[in-house]
């Protein structure tokens, strides 16, 4: 029998704290520390889209999807509408958002 440990994704608060720490330390944004921080968010967002977003591709094509770190979904017609509603529902930075399309547009660190 195997035990699968659930992935713990970076939250908006964790990202914000680490980003502020790096900025205060005057770490350049192209430094490896910043790149690792951004990579954590990108990995989270890619996983959330693959796992929870793709099933909506056919039924809500062209709309914007917000996916919380625990898989809750909000779908809206525009990116700005989605950002507002997802931030209210999930908290700033605690979700991924992309356009439901073959090549999904997205804003990193929503």
Please supply descriptive tags for the structure shown above.
43% helix, alpha+beta, 3 helices, three-stranded antiparallel sheet, 110 residues, elongated
In round numbers, the mean pLDDT is 89
Unreliable stretches, pLDDT < 50, 5 or more residues?
A: none
What's the helix count?
Answer: 3
| Widest sheet: strand ordering | 2-1-3
Into which percentage range does the β-strand content fall? 5-15%
Amount of helix: 40-55%
Describe the main β-sheet briefly: 3 strands, antiparallel
Q: Rg to the nearest angstrom?
A: 15 Å
Number of strands: 3
H/E element order: HHEEHE
- What gap, in angstroms, lies between the N and C termini? 39 Å
Structural class: alpha+beta
User: Domains counted in the coordinates: how many?
Assistant: 1
Envelope shape? elongated
Structure overview:
The model has no long low-confidence stretch (mean pLDDT 89). Helix 1 packs antiparallel against helix 2. The chain is elongated. Strands 2-1-3 form a three-stranded antiparallel beta sheet, sandwiched between helices. By secondary structure, the chain is α+β, with helices and mostly antiparallel strands. The chain is built from three helices and three strands; from the N terminus they run ααββαβ. It starts with 11 loop residues before the first helix and ends in an 11-residue tail after the last strand. The chain has one domain. The protein has helices at 12-24, 32-53, 79-90, and strands at residues 64-68, 73-76, 95-99. Strand 1 and strand 2 form a beta hairpin.
